[in-house]
């Protein structure tokens, strides 16, 4: 089944070029099926690039997914045309009275910023709390994991001394969980963060099921027992050249970044990057849509009730 997106969204041309099955709203409106309604709260500066990356992964499913894009506030963007935001993005006030099957909260370049200094922190907290009563399953990515662990579990912000950047090997920690169905025992995934996620600390201070970890990167994938909160500390959505772009940007800003680990051929930034995580990324999002969203959500979202889920407080 295709992913359903607005007719004129820039990601359409990119996805069609990659032979990804997308369906325009005008065609999808004639089908008599119940699509999954997924909201993406895009916190990244380059919104078009980020939305394309997530839409690519959401499309790899037999389910029809009706995607809506959400912005955190109405501040002007330096990296995305205002016309694009006005056309394709919703304000939270426009959706807060509705229910959704899934919510994705992206990362944000706020690794060294204290929570209380994040300009939209209170608004983000309101959205995460709202989702507990209005969304079947929420997927938190990278910085959003830190935010979610703080808001839902009261965990403080933990920061690494040096930025974690590169493609790291991960190992499975739990057998037969549906979210990791089909995963190899070890797999690769990219990271780009200052946030620290120590495995034992999180295990001791939350009730999360920790599904995958890395010796270098710490916790990678975890979920609440009821699968309503899923945490991914890396960036399985990244394109082949995303880490390269960040590395070149940091070089240009005089930050003297380390070369992303296990990313370039022969670890030489003059060589082409190697995208070694695509299959894992597609499988992760397909499993999330199927087992955490589709298999859990009510057919009639207006009958959504937190009581149908096992609470994880």
TrEMBL record:
A GO biological process held by the record = L-methionine biosynthetic process from homoserine via O-succinyl-L-homoserine and cystathionine
Q: Which GO terms describe its cellular component?
A: cytoplasm
| UniProt keyword list | Acyltransferase, Amino-acid biosynthesis, Cytoplasm, Methionine biosynthesis, Transferase
Q: Name one Pfam family in it.
A: HTS
Give site residues, Important for substrate specificity.
Answer: 192
Q: Where in the cell is it found?
A: Cytoplasm
Main subcellular location: cytoplasm
Q: GO terms for molecular function, please?
A: homoserine O-acetyltransferase activity; homoserine O-succinyltransferase activity
Report which residue ranges the record marks as coiled coil. none
Pathway per the UniProt entry: Amino-acid biosynthesis; L-methionine biosynthesis via de novo pathway; O-succinyl-L-homoserine from L-homoserine: step 1/1
Binding-site residues, substrate: 163, 192, 249
What is the protein's name according to its record? Homoserine O-succinyltransferase
Species this chain originates from:
Vibrio ruber (strain DSM 16370 / JCM 11486 / BCRC 17186 / CECT 7878 / LMG 23124 / VR1)
